[in-house]
Write a structure and sequence with these properties.
With 581 residues, the chain is an alpha/beta fold. 26% of the residues lie in helices and 30% in strands. It is built from 13 helices and 26 strands. Strands 12, 13, 14, 15, 16, 17, 18, 19, 20, 23, 24, 25 and 26 form a 13-stranded mixed sheet that branches. Strand 19 and strand 20 form a beta hairpin. The termini are far apart. The N terminus is likely disordered.
Amino acid sequence: MGQVDLQEKIILTPRKKTAKSTIISIERRRAEAPEENGVDGSKVFVAGGPHKGIVIQKDALAAIPDNSPPKLTLEFRVFLVSSATNEHSQESRTLWFWFKDGLFHTEEACSAQEFFKDLVSPVDFPRDYVGFIKKIMKLMQTKYPQIQKVEVELRHLEPVERSSFLVQMVDYESDNLIEVTEAIVLEIIESSFPNPISVSQIANQTRSDPRKIVELLTSLQNKRRVKTIGGDNFTRMTKNEDNIKVVRQMPRIIRSQQPTVAIITAKYCEKLAVDAMIDDLETFVRFNTVGESNVYSLGTIGNHRVVATKLPSVGNTREAMIVAGNTTTRLLGTFQAVEHVFLVGVAGGVPHYTDSQRHIRLGDVVVSAPIQDKRFIYMYCEEKRKQNLNNSNSQMEENVEIETKTWCPPDLQLQDIAENIRHQDNSVYISHFHRGLEILSDQDISFLRPPPESDKLYMSIGGNDLIEVNHPTDRGNEIRTGATPRLHLGPIGCGYIVSRNDILRQEISYTHGILAYDSEFDQVLESIYGNRKDNYVVIRGISDYVDGTGGRGKEWQAYASLVASSVMKAMILELPNPVQD
C-alpha cells in the first residue's frame, strides 16, 4: 500500500443506472488511498501522467452520501449518429452543480454557464460518452476550482431526424438582401403608424424595386390591411375605421374629462392590446404627410380617464430617438393633467439558464422596479470609444467602454402596486387578458398564446454558435405548470450594443440585476423626467430572449403585449380615485 495522498482529487463515482439513463457523480475532495477509504482497490482506477489527480471509482457504494440539494441545473440535448447503423438518436444530458462555500449566487450562476460553454464548445466538443465525462473532470481539475461537485445524468430519448444541436446566431450586421414580402411591407407600415409612409420610403428601407412595393401594397389594400393617405402615402387600416376620427387639431377637453393616466406604446400590436383594455374608447388621429402624425386613444379604465398613444418609430437611430422623445413631450404637453405614465409593450427576457426560480419565460411580464441596492428602474447602455496613451510604446490605443444612464421615479407608488399584485393570485390580471382576447378576436393579428414548443432557449457559446438548452427546473420537479405567465419586478435595460451581444448582455444583467431589455426608450424616459412626472413605470411582456424586436421570431409579440396590457389595467384599477375639482 502506498503512502496516503491527501491532495484534492477529482473523483468519479457511478450513482445509478437504468435501461435508459445513467447518473454519475464527479466530486472534488481530499482523497485517501482506496483501501483506507473502505473501497476495494481493484475497483478504483487512479490516473497518472497528464491526468494525475483523477480517480475513477467503479463501485456506486463508494460515493459519500450527500443529501444537500444542488445549487444550479443545466440541461441540453445532443443528437448522435450511430457509426454502425447511421441512425440518429437523441440524448438528454443534465448537469447538477454544487459549489464551495463563500460564493455569491451570481458567481455560482456565471461559473456554471462558463463551465457549460467550455464543455460544449464546438471547437473541441466531445464526440463520445467517454470524452464528454473526461472533459468535465479536466475542466473541474484545471479551470473551475470553485465547483465542488457535478452530477451528470445521460438519458436516452426517442429517435429523431435531426443531426445537429447547434444553430447559427442571427447576424444583425449582415448586408444580405431579404426578399420583400407582404408581411415585411405591412410590418414597416405598422411600425411607422401613425406616420404615413411612401412607396419610395418602403423601397429604400427594403432596398427593393418600387414596382414590387406597389404590387404588394395593392394586394394589402385589397385585403383591407392598408389605405392611402394623400396620394402616394400609406398607413395601417384598422378594424374599427368608422370609430377613428381624423382631425387637424385635438378637440378641447373640459378639465373634468382630462386624462390623468397616459399610456405609451411603440408597436402596432401593443397599441391594439392597450386599446382593448380601455372602455368608452375614442380614437383621434392627426395625419401629417410631412412631419409627425399623432394618434390618441381616449377612454376610461375603472374610475380613471386615460389617454394612449403609439410612437411612430423607436430604435437606435438618431432620428428615431428624437421622434420618440418629441412624441412623448407632445403627449404630456397636450394632456397636462396626466399624473401617471405607463410604457407598455414587449421586451426580451434575461434567461437564468441554471435557476428555475429566477428564470423568465416567454409570455411572462416584467414591471420596472428597483431591487436591493439598485436605485433605478431603467438603464440605458451605450458604447463609448476612447483614445488612451499606451505608456509602454507611446502609441494611442482605442478602448471600448460601456457607459450607462439610469432613471428612477421620485414616487414608487406604481411599483408598490405591482408588488402587491405579484403576491396575489394571477387571476387579478388574467381576467383582463381573457376579456381583451374576446375584444381582439376579429383582428387580423392573433393574440392567442403560441404553442409551448415555440419557447426555445439558446445559449451563446462563442463565435456565431448557439446551443439550444432546456429551460431550468428544480431537480425532479417542473416548477412551471400550464400556460400561466409570471409577474416579475426588477430593472429593465436597453442599448444597441448589449442587444447585439449575448455574452455582454448576460454580464450586465447579472451585475445590475436587469431582468429584460427593450428597444431603447431612453428618450421617452428623458421626456417624462423633463416634464416632471413623478409616477412612471415600464411594463414589458416577454416576447423573445433578446430585446423584444423579434430578431429570432415575432410570434410571441401579440400575446406578450396583451398580457402586459392586462397587468397595466390591474395596476390602474388599484390607483386611488382621481381628485375631482
